[in-house]
């Protein structure tokens, strides 16, 4: 092993509003003090409830991805597991997401864009079998 993942960094035009969007989606703390980096208007972090960290970096002239076009590639995407796909769908739309693909209405996933245009998926979590 060479190193440990510290965070996933998303380029965007407005870091703080995008961090707040992902806070509504994933929980956690925006701009929690962390010895690994300094916080600024151009560098905002989200320490999620699960312990993972997302960072949002302000980029001048940011060009949002356009799913599924390759001339504006995805740059990254997140899969977010949910227990109730319909309820989560309503919540992300209310938080500012845009539906890109409903998965045909019968699949266990849907694709959205966050307010800065980055795609992410809501994926229905299947109940885990219980050990007898």
Automatic annotation (TrEMBL):
PROSITE patterns: VOC (PS51819). Pfam families: Glyoxalase_6. It comes from the Bacteria. InterPro entries: Glyas_Bleomycin-R_OHBP_Dase, Glyoxalase_6, VOC_core. Residues 4-125 form the VOC domain. This is Glyoxalase.
């Amino acid at each position: 092993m060479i190193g440990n993942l510290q965070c996933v960094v998303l380029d965007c035009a407005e870091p703080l509003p995008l961090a707040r969007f992902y806070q509504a989606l994933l929980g956690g703390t925006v701009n929690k003090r962390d010895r690994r980096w300094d916080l600024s208007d151009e560098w905002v972090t989200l320490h999620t409830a699960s312990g993972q960290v997302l960072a949002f970096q302000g980029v001048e002239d940011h060009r949002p991805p356009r799913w599924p076009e390759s001339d504006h590639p995805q740059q990254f995407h997140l899969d977010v597991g949910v227990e109730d796909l319909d309820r989560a769908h309503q919540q992300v739309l209310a938080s500012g997401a845009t539906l890109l693909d409903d998965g045909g209405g019968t699949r266990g996933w849907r694709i959205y864009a966050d307010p800065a245009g980055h795609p992410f998926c809501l994926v229905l979590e299947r109940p885990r079998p219980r050990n007898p």
